[in-house]
Predict the structure.
Amino acid sequence: MSKDYEVVIGLEVHAELKTKSKIFCACSTAFGAEPNTQVCPVCSGFPGMLPVLNEKAVDCAIKTGLALNSEIAEFCKFDRKNYFYPDLPKAYQISQYDLPICKGGYLDIDVEGERTRVGITRAHLEEDAGKLVHQGDITTTPFSLVDLNRSGVPLLEIVSEPDMRSAQQARAYMEKLRSILLFADVSDCKMEEGSLRCDANVSVRPWGEQKLGTRTEIKNLNSFRALERAIEYEAKRQMEALEDGEVIVQETRTWDEGKGVTRSMRSKEEAHDYRYFPEPDLPPLRIDRDWVDTVRKSMPEMPVQAGQRLMDQYGLSQYDADLITQSPQNLKFFDETLALYADAKAVSNWMMGDLTRLLNQNGMEIQDAKVKPALLAEMLRLMADGTISGKMAKTVFEEMFVSGLDPQTIIKEKGLVQISDANSLLPLIDEIINNNPKVLQDYKNGKEKAFGFFIGQIMKATKGQANPEMVNNLLKERLNRE
Amino acid sequence: MELHQLTIHELQELLSRKETSALEITQAIFSRIHAVDKQVRAFITLTEEEALAKAREIDNQGEYGRIAGIPLGLKDIFCTRGVKTTCASRILENFVPTYDSTAAGKLFADKGILAGKLNMDEFAMGSSTEQSAFFSTCNPWDFTRVPGGSSGGSAAAVAADEVPFALGTDTGGSIRQPASFCGVVGLKPTYGRVSRWGVIAYASSLDQVGTFAKDVRDCALVMNIISGKDPLDSTSVDLPVPDYSASLDGNVKGMKIAYPREYFQPGIDSQVQEAIKKALIKYEEMGAIVDEVSLPHSEYALPAYYLVATAEASANLARYDGVRYGLRDFEAANVIDMFSRSRAEGFGEEVKRRIMLGSYALSSGYYDAYYLKALKVRRLIADDFSKVFAKFDLIVSPTAPTVAFKIGEQIGDPLTLYMNDILTVPINMAGLPAMSIPCGFHEGMPVGMQLVGPAFGESTLFKAAFAFEQNTDFHTFRPALEVK
Amino acid sequence: MALTIKEVEYVAQLARLQLNEDEKQIFAEQLSSILEYVEKLNELPTDGVEPLAHILPVYNVFRADEIRPGTPREEILANAPLVEEGQYKVPKIM
């Protein structure tokens, strides 16, 4: 990034709340159903229909608010946000305008060893719109189709302060927020299914300038990578525009993943005038402190506390702790493995290394993996007692990932047992030394390479199964006796 | 007396004594409708075949009670499963709901028989039923006059003996004013007393379902059926429903009745005022204590109402966009044009006017000056009533400033038309229950008296209205219709 | 408060109502006279008055998070002016 400018980023995140039914009617929220098969007259905006609030959605909002250190409003209400769009059946969205359920709050992110506190402005409940399906691009499609399955799915919109200064920070915020939502068990947070969505407000300003620059809002950020790349692109675009003496236009832009650019969505659309007013069909909410306390008491361990526990108890780094607390499933895997095999660093390394790599390659979640904590613990134990080498362990792990077989079986089937028995190794060492008198002479003359040659020959003869450490020691001892 | 002239409770008695059948009653009702509705024009849709089939079914079961086997009419704002529900609008001309509104569903569950759907001002916006997109309804007392509105079809149908009772809705007077104009009993209950689910919304914070009947006893009977909490309507209130029929004891001794001086001003026809004053004397004779009070913010209720109601309407009517149901313009080149053209073609002038006013009142820069100001005034109006009800049991006033006016007389001048609601609107703003009962005649047309009670004080209204009815005969008069 | 034709056009655009020139003129006049009438409210001092948005003293009305079957697709789509592949079909967006 340019050294003359500072990037300022704020994020608006929409999280679909994990309720079975929609926010104002009893239709299912399940993802992936045939179009318009999870609809009723309420979520389809038919005449005479009225909303009734799903209590679980309010619970989820309170939980999230507590996890984000927000103040839970004692009084809040719903409002109508009016605009016409074919996927918005009532032509208004029931949302919260001036009295959101959660006010203020923050979360801390760590990027390259530096901690930043990102403020939360507010979080409010609202209903999702339906889905528009185009033939190809929205700008050229001759017609569109409307599916209302998603209409009325509960959303929590979480708005951050413009407290982030780099795309990396924005990504870290999004990752941290996701882990909090997952730990609080309020959202599935599947970006690919749209249950976690994000719009980024980006502006740039000269270093030292206090006033914020004109911002653009970037939409269509469907992955962490898209978020990071889009912000980097947009910041650069704005800086170059300013350098060229251009003026930044406040507008909505969309991220084109394929081309790697943001594009203006400006059309002849009028200025937004949403005409918010209190929703007369829904009585307001009074959230008494007993309710909040009940929710507070039911809160599971949050990633921040869990991460601290990992650092305090096991001496893990902030980085490792962050990775393990990315999701409750990750942490559960770690905790369960650790209960069986008490080397935190080893468990963490394997989880974050081979396991994460294989999960990503196969597009899987940790809870779906065939490798279970007991298997990993057993493998680590076999490594520690010398039954298998680190290199063998990699093979064993990959096999466990595919088959879910226990390491003992894999070792047996693949003949992977490490030879750690001096009595079987010593005759072999003797034989190799005796067969190579010239190399032995070289060794005596101080040639380091000769030692390596003998090791190689031994490993070759044992098909790599010899315990390398033991071979090393035995060979040294034997040569020193020459 | 012929069957079509009888009240629900009279029909009920005949049924329980097996002196008639649901089929006979239903046939009588339809022959009456066929005889007079060409002139009255109260019905948009008739459901004769289904009604006769249902009547036979009820007769076969042979169990009667409450409204079992009694035909009824519904304002065409109540959604009815499988029966066209138009709201008297082109935009919903062919709309067939897949659901029954809760209030209608309760009547059907009690074996009431739907005779048909009744005319109204389009989307309940109007005071004369001339704003129906289809046709005007005539006042059965004088076909050259309006029946009032917006529930004009319901009032006219009951007055013309086309149905023993009908449901309507009241947002600013839409039950009481037509009841007054047509000389029948009309009740707008407390906001939250009857479910609004399945009732097409005009102004959600003001709309309330109510009933038209030939006498107070019938009105109480119907209220017993339709009242109560509905889990599908968050604004319906979870309070026990008293047996309203039990309050019909005719005793108003010691009842404290207030008449607000602001409701007896110039602008209110002097003959209408005279009729109410006579009624007040009657109440005193019956032992009630009558006194004048002030509702100081009354004159601000109407302007505040027109802002609140139209603002809510602008959102409530936004869903008619041609996507999921209703009229669509197929010529439009893109979706925005499709919205704008479908709505322009589908809505009538008064509806457009109110959508425009409401959108303006909410729009950026005007919200505080108009909408928010109106909400504050609404508070002052509600407080006025609270103060009076701290000391009184009942408020009495004229229902409408005049008797029914001539068809066409007030069209084209929205403000004059809005003035019809000046005595009824404040009650909706305060969410209170109110009833209009016949209390006299002027120019040969009925005059209605408005009784207003405290929130959920419907029993007081029934008590006072029944006592008046017992001591007068205004409710026994029916228009002499020339049956062609 | 007189409403200009331009303001009428803006509000009509917000409300998605296509108006012809005559209608714009009529609405400008009628809405102006209605607005003039509602100006009456400004006679009333309302500083410190709590706006009344919900008339009932009712709060926290909820439903439990339970699924119930919705409306069968053919039934709910039966009123739609245009349907394709089980979805509402609308003309192009832009």
